[in-house]
Design a protein that fits this description.
The protein has about 325 residues and is an alpha/beta fold. The protein has eleven helices and eleven strands.
């Protein structure tokens, strides 16, 4: 019976981006999920804009694309011209979802950018819709309040006074060399984001179901008024499919590129360097590790810059998912927020 039910369902994964266009890790997590569903016998489709290059998807996963206003080169950093999340984007997505819907479809949204378009399609008769929530953006745009709260689950700031305190707390973790005018601009931006956060929270509560990336994060969402106990599940991200083992030449090239000697012990931190990702906590912990273990070296792969480089801490720009395999092989410890 379970097999019959699986065969009757078509999983439709919806994202504004898909490899080879991947601003972050969510796109690679989506591809891993799509491959896992297809392997389990579930018909799986990815709906995404047509940026130029075709989507890179596992065997058994098909794609439905809709036209983007510009062609951009593949990669992690590219300009969409403000189209993603705009009314034009939302309407194009809604029309695509409605035009390709089938009985038995389940729509799994893979980012906040596609929520508005999916809700517009839902008003036109779309099937069950759920969203994977990966961060605290729908709870607090700054995140400092949740890091500072020692209770569990942590509580996000609620009043404007709280928002101001949280915004300044967030900026206190920025580099000391940041000019005062940029700090003030950052506070203003985060206060404006607070309004967007309240709107996003309301949108999430309109969806049929939410998926948290861990049991702990599920508790955080529910504690802060997002979802209902029967409407939030925890599904951990699937690991990427193992690729070929990196060659000795590739490992040596990465050591040279990172400036890591053969005697140093590499700790690899992968993910955006931000307060919400817990980078300050990691930095404090790694300072103790570096003190106790001579030769320990942290390489933080991702966007953002919270801490200056030192003898034991190196900031490195994002690396495409497929290239991370060689880095994993080099590291003694891999830290993923």
């Amino acid at each position: 019976r379970a097999e019959l039910r699986l065969n009757a369902v078509r999983a439709v994964l919806v994202n504004a981006f898909c490899p080879p266009y991947a601003p972050g890790g969510a796109e690679y997590s989506m591809v891993a999920l799509a491959g896992g569903l297809a392997h389990a016998g579930v018909e799986t489709v990815v709906v995404t804009p047509r940026w130029g290059a075709p989507p890179e998807l596992p065997e058994g996963v098909s794609a439905v694309t809709f036209a983007a206003p510009r062609v951009v080169p593949p990669g992690q950093d590219f300009a969409d011209g403000g189209w993603v999340g705009s009314p034009a984007f939302n309407e194009a997505l809604a029309q695509t979802l409605v035009a390709t819907r089938r009985a038995g479809d389940v729509y799994h949204l893979q980012g906040y950018h596609v929520v508005d378009g999916a809700l517009a399609a839902a008003s036109r008769g779309l099937g069950p819709t759920l969203l994977t929530v990966r961060d605290t953006q729908a709870i607090c745009p700054a995140g400092w309040c949740m890091m500072a709260d020692t209770a569990w689950p942590p509580t996000a700031c609620r009043t404007w006074t709280d928002h101001v305190r949280c915004a300044w707390g967030n900026l206190s973790h920025q580099p000391e060399t940041l000019p005062s005018w940029r700090r003030a601009r950052g506070v203003a931006r985060l206060l404006l984001e607070a309004d967007k956060t309240r709107r996003l929270r309301a949108q999430l509560n309109r969806l049929g179901h939410l998926v948290a990336v861990s049991e702990g994060f599920r508790e955080v969402l529910l504690h802060n008024g997002i979802g209902r106990p029967t409407g939030v599940s925890a599904i951990y991200n699937l690991p990427p499919a193992p690729g070929p083992a990196p060659t000795a030449e590739a490992l040596a090239a990465w050591r040279h590129r990172l400036g890591v000697t053969a005697t140093q012990r590499l700790i690899l931190a992968v993910g955006k360097r931000s307060l919400g990702k817990g980078t300050p906590v990691l930095h404090r912990a790694m300072a103790e590790v570096a003190r106790d273990i001579p030769g320990a070296r942290v390489v933080a792969i991702g966007k953002g810059r919270l801490f200056a480089e030192s003898a034991w801490w190196t900031n490195h720009p994002p690396v495409p998912g497929p290239e991370l395999a060689a880095l994993y092989a080099l590291a003694e410890v891999v830290v993923v927020p």
